[in-house]
Amino acid sequence: MTHPFVRDQNRRPVACGDCGLYRLCVTLGLGGDDAVLLDSVVRRKRIYKRSEFLFHAGEPAEHVYAIRSGSVKTYLTTRTGRVQVTGLHLAGELLGLAGLDSRAYSCEAQALETTSACQLSLKQLEQAALLAPAVHRQMLRIMASQIRHYEQLLLLLGKHNAEQRLAAFLLALSQRLALRNFSATQLSLSMSRGEIGNYLGIAEETVCRLFARFQEQGLVEVRRRHVRLDDLARLRVIAQEQAAPAPAAGGGPGSSRPPVPDAEPSAPSALSH
Question: What dotted CATH number matches 9-155?
Fold first, then answer.
């Protein structure tokens, strides 16, 4: 049974309790008596217009960013000028943690739409971690969660074909939205088809063909950047299938359709924030 499209949920600010920084803010005094410590670490909030940068690669890392509404892409530019998208960050998620190690941001972070974000001072955060072990533990948990995410992404890009990658990408977005108490079936893809293809290591044309195929099969309904997931169960089947050898020319006996090729088979090599 299908369901109607809903309003763009990316623009609705995430509740503090659903934000990736919530547990850390609690340890810093949110709702307690020590509001001074919280105010010195968390600065709320700044609005970024579409295409505006939160930070640039190589800049001194001064803040971690918690997205309250909107979305942000991170990317790298190689010496030859090739752009590689390394992440899509949604409301309630964090970016900029790599600065704790290198003291400089490792990538570009650009707002894909009007975006609001809380800034968390890295310097003050480190000082707070020295004073409060609970802050240190929460920082480790947040970073461990992001490491798991990138491990799963590396597995996806290294072992799956184009169809499986796109299905897994849509399911991952669904899960991330559900975690923040948004709709798990209504997606607003702020990244273009070309950016999605760049991120997944497949051609833009392949992404467009796959969206059309998924819609023909009743898995999704697409209206420009809005995508409604109509059959999560079948998308999971596609995402979890083991990649099979391509059939011979003409599809071979029993084949229902030709495979969609991976026009850009190499996976992104840089995945840090």
Answer: 2.60.120.10
| Residue 122 identity (one-letter amino acid) | L
Instruction: Give the pLDDT confidence of 180-203 residue by residue, as tens digits.
Output: 788 999 999 999 999 999 999 999
| 85 beta partners | 75
Q: Are 116 and 46 spatial neighbours (Cβ–Cβ below 8 Å)? A: yes
Predicted TM-score (pTM) of the model is 0.73
Neighbours of 186 (CB within 10 A): 20
Q: Which residue has the tokens 């995508």?
A: 227
And the tokens for 167? 């299905």
**Where exactly are the structural domains of the chain?**
9-155
C-beta separation of 64 from 94 below 8 A: yes
How far is Cα 111 from Cα 54, in angstroms, rounded to an integer? 7
Q: What is the pLDDT of residues 110-166, one digit of tens each?
A: 999 999 888 888 887 777 777 777 777 777 777 777 777 777 777 767 768 999 999
> Would you tell me the crossing angle of helices 133-159 and 122-131 to the nearest 10 degrees?
120
